[in-house]
Write a structure and sequence with these properties.
By secondary structure, the chain is of the alpha+beta class. The chain has 4 helices and 5 strands. A 3-stranded antiparallel β-sheet has the order 1-4-5. α2 packs antiparallel against α4.
Length: about 130
């Protein structure tokens, strides 16, 4: 048994190292694909147009707020906007309109808007 040939052992060892390296790289690529997918899904699930539509309806309400309040229709219109958002968009919506305040020399209503569709929660305070 003098002088055994050990070249075959090095070939097997190098093959094992290459296989482990390929497994590690495949694991990294798999994880990066999952992270990219969940990030893209989060961007797609954000209801940007629903929030824009809600803001437009609230601002229309605020524009006519004085006339609605004088005629006693302000609560009816507000409840309609809330009910329509829940029915059509499956979103819980609430908004309040405060008394006019002086903002940079203009009399504006503070408006707080709350939007929640179970995935996205959005809160805003704006003067209109």
């Amino acid at each position: 048994m003098a002088r055994m040939n050990e070249d075959g052992q090095w070939i097997v060892l190098m093959g094992l190292l290459v296989a482990v390296a390929l497994f590690f790289l495949a694991l990294i690529v798999n994880q990066s694909a999952l992270v990219g997918q969940t990030t893209a899904e989060a961007v797609l699930e954000f209801p940007k147009n629903d929030i824009r539509d809600l803001r437009e309806a609230v601002f229309d309400y605020v524009r006519d707020y004085e006339a609605l309040r004088n005629n006693g229709y302000d609560d009816d219109v507000k409840n309609d906007v809330i009910a329509i958002s829940l029915e059509r968009k499956n979103a819980v919506v609430n908004f309040t309109v405060g008394e006019k305040r002086d903002v940079s020399g203009r009399q504006l209503h503070p408006v707080t808007i709350h939007y929640n569709n179970g995935v996205t929660e959005y809160d805003e305070t704006v003067y209109y």
